[in-house]
C-alpha cells in the first residue's frame, strides 16, 4: 500500500468522490495532464497532518505544492470540505458508529457586568 492509499483509504476516497465536482476535461494537445484528485487529496492531508508548507511537499505525491494548494483553494471555495464532513457524519451515524453521548457540551451561565470590567 502506497502513501496515497494510506492517507486516503478507499472508503474516504469513495465519499470524497460523492462531494467533489468531476474534473474539467481538457482540450487535446495542450498543457500538462491534470494530477489525479486522489493524489492531490493525499498531498493536502499530508500537509494538514504534518504541518509542512506547500513548498515542502515531498515529490512522492506526484503533484507540486502549488498545485495541491491551488486545488485545496478550489475545493474550499466549492465547499467540498463541509460536504465531506457532513457526509462522513451521516455515514458514521447510519452505521451506528457515531456516539454523540460523548460529545456533550456543558452550559455555563456567566454574568456580564454592566459598564465594563
Automatic annotation (TrEMBL):
Domain called Insertion element IS402-like: residue spans: 9-85
Superkingdom field: Bacteria
The protein, known as: Transposase
Amino acid at each position: 500500500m502506497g502513501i496515497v492509499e494510506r492517507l486516503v483509504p478507499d472508503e474516504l476516497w469513495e465519499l470524497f468522490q460523492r462531494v467533489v465536482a468531476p474534473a474539467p476535461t481538457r482540450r487535446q494537445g495542450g498543457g500538462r495532464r491534470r494530477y489525479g484528485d486522489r493524489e492531490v487529496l493525499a498531498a493536502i492531508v499530508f500537509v494538514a497532518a504534518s504541518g509542512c508548507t506547500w513548498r515542502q511537499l515531498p515529490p512522492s505525491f506526484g503533484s507540486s505544492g502549488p498545485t495541491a494548494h491551488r486545488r485545496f483553494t478550489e475545493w474550499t471555495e466549492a465547499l467540498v470540505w463541509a460536504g465531506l464532513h457532513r457526509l462522513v457524519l451521516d455515514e458514521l451515524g447510519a452505521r451506528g458508529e457515531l456516539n454523540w453521548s460523548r460529545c456533550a457540551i456543558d452550559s455555563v451561565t456567566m454574568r456580564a457586568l454592566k459598564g465594563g470590567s
